[in-house]
Amino acid sequence: MRILFAAAESAPFFKTGGLGDVVGALPKCLCRKGHDVRVILPYYGTMPEKYKEMLEDVLYYNLSMGWKSSYCGIKRLTLEGVTYYFIDNQSYFFREQCYGYEDDGERFAFFSMAVCEAMEKIDFIPDIIHVHDWHVAMVPVLLVHKYGWIQAYRHIRKVLTIHNVQFQGIFDPIILESMFGMGREAYHENGVKYHDKINYLKGGINYSDRITTVSPSYAGEIQTPEFGEGLDDALRYNGWKIRGILNGIDTEMNNPRKDTRIANPFDARSLRGKRKNKTALQERLGLRVEEDAACIGMVTRLTDQKGISLLLEALPELLKRRVQLVIVGTGDSRHEYALRQTAQNHPDQVSVNIEFNLTLAQNIYAGSDLFLMPSAFEPCGLSQMIAFRYGSIPLVHETGGLKDTVIPYNSLTGEGTGFSFHDFSPEAFLRVLDVALEVYYDNPEQWKTLFRRGMKLDFSWNASIPRYEDLYQELLEEQE
């Protein structure tokens, strides 16, 4: 199959979160299965120099945007069998961040049209175009209403992946004329209309042929008012085309036996190696060095979505237990301040590191006993999968991908892979924490069993790739 991915970010070039991880990994895995896979991305000025040096210019032209035209360059490089195209416009993409600007509606209108026009210009007409999140969710709309006259495009099947329905791309409807250069054919309730605005993600939901989410549970959750972020009606209406496919992780990059970033490489047979990483982490962060003290790790964005408000409510009680807490991440300034204050008041017990530090993150996975993810909602989550890989047993809120990947521990049978709580409250969280600590301190043999069981779990892309292939094949067969 010929498959074109379009997204706002992709590792290893640009990454702000799970979206970049998925777009970085999925095309490579499909390519290894023999498919002709291309990826098209914005050309951000933050691209690492080693990749900039690999780029070749393909072509450039002026792209018409409503009442004006804008420079559009196309660059190309090939990495691990995948061909990447980068859309160049320095005024839109040479900025400090990938997105988060007042003109994001215009920036990604430009990018979405560039994606559509690039297919003809680079002579790659895919069987499947797979777009990710709101930034490119207008591509399916454009292929129907702006570029539907192009004969070669009429058989392209359109797939949208929703990584987080909270982010939708909501703008004034004037953008249809002023930026997209189209009429209001799609401005209706079963199109892009959202109250008196347009909603890019809603357009993708209504105009795609299939919708995927990044875990099976999240596919159901977003069709409810509680988790649908105002789009639950549109998602229920399109429920027949929604599929939940769990993300995977790069098991080579996240391999505790070979990871040079951690203090002591180890595997599932070496609980002693795990303890050495804990000691190294305690020393590195200035915590009291106690090999037996339960160390709780977090690698996270410091936001309400990630359960930081709940954690802060629970912290006074949590710190009465014999635990250490290690956190790395950035986010809301009020959460950063509150966590910093806690660390200052408990310097032997709490370490808070307000930064994005991949090496420290890997050492937290390797050195912690428990890995905390109390997310209010979690479309998939990759951190719990990485934690398993490094022998850090997840303690999670039962939502989305966390529910799909962490089997609750059963104290009667010993079954399960981690610990979880259902009610989103500090009381429920502390109750399950006490269960985990009881196993850790009072039943070390059972803890060893959980440690080894988790490290042997397979969260690679091996299980998910066939599901994507089946989805694509299903779409192509519908045309025959």
What percent of residues adopt helix (DSSP H or I)?
Answer: 25-40%
Q: Work out the strand percent.
A: 15-25%
Structural class: alpha/beta
Task: Name the shape in a single word.
Answer: elongated
- The whole-angstrom Rg is 23 Å
Distance between the termini: 15 Å
CATH class of the largest domain: Alpha Beta
By CATH's scheme, which homologous superfamily of the largest domain applies?
A: Glycogen Phosphorylase B
Mean pLDDT: 96
Per CATH, what is the topology of the largest domain? Rossmann fold
Number of domains: 2
CATH architecture annotation name of the largest domain? 3-Layer(aba) Sandwich
Total DSSP helices: 18
- Total strands: the figure is 18
Strand order of the largest sheet: 3-4-5-2-1-6-7-11-12
Biggest sheet, in brief?
A: 9 strands, mixed
Poorly predicted segments: none
